[in-house]
C-alpha cells in the first residue's frame, strides 16, 4: 500500500501546529507541577512531561507497529510536533526502543549511556565557557 505524503511546506505547518500545542501543554504542566502541588517543586515538571510524553510515544509506536495506519500528517503532528515539543525525551525513548528491537539491548544501552553522558558533559563545558566569557566564575 502506498503512503500519501504531504507537500514539504504543508508538513512543516502540521508539525509546527503540533509543536505549538505540545509547548503549551508542557508549559501548563510545569506551572501545575512547579507550583508545588505535591509539596515538591523543581525537576518534577520535567519528570512529569517525560513520563507522559514517553507513555504517549510508546502507545503511538506500538499501535503503528501493530498495523494501525496513521497518515504521515498525523504522525508528524503527534510524534514530531506535539510529543517533540512536549518532551524530546519521547523521541529519545523511541530511538532506544527501536535500537533494542533492531540491534539489541547492548546497542541501546550504549546509545542511552553515550547520549546522557555526552549531553551532560557538553552542557557542563558550555556552561563553564559562558561563565568564563562573561567573567562570572
Task: Explain the layout of strands and helices.
Layout: H1 8-34, H2 44-65, H3 72-86, H4 89-103, H5 105-134
Helix pairs in contact: 1-2, 1-3, 2-3, 2-4, 4-5
Can you walk through the features of this model?
- The chain has 137 residues and is an all-alpha fold.
- The protein has a domain at 8-88.
- It contains 5 helices and no strands.
- α1 packs across α2 (44-65), α1 (8-34) runs parallel beside α3 (72-86) and α4 packs antiparallel against α5.
- The protein is globular and about 55 Å long.
- The chain starts with 7 loop residues before the first helix and ends with a helix.
- The relative contact order is 0.12.
- The mean pLDDT is 86.
How many DSSP-defined strands? 0
Helix content: over 70%
Shape: globular
Mean pLDDT: 86
Quaternary organization: single chain
Pick out the low-confidence regions: none
The separation of the N and C termini measures 60 Å
Helix tally equals: 5
Strand content: under 5%
Radius of gyration: 18 Å
SSE topology string: HHHHH
Main pleated sheet: none
* Helix/strand/pairing category: mainly alpha
Amino acid at each position: 500500500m502506498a503512503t500519501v505524503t504531504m507537500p514539504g511546506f504543508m508538513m512543516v505547518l502540521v508539525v509546527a501546529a503540533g509543536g505549538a500545542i505540545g509547548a503549551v501543554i508542557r508549559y501548563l504542566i510545569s506551572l501545575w507541577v512547579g507550583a508545588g502541588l505535591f509539596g515538591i517543586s523543581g525537576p518534577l515538571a520535567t519528570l512529569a512531561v517525560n513520563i507522559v510524553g514517553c507513555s504517549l510515544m510508546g502507545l503511538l509506536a506500538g499501535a503503528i507497529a501493530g498495523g494501525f495506519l496513521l497518515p504521515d500528517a498525523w504522525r508528524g503532528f503527534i510524534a514530531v510536533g506535539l510529543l517533540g515539543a512536549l518532551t524530546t525525551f519521547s523521541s529519545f525513548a523511541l530511538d532506544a526502543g527501536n535500537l533494542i528491537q533492531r540491534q539489541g539491548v547492548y546497542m541501546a544501552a550504549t546509545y542511552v549511556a553515550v547520549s546522557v553522558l555526552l549531553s551532560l558533559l557538553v552542557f557542563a563545558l558550555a556552561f563553564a565557557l559562558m561563565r568564563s566569557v562573561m567573567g562570572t566564575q
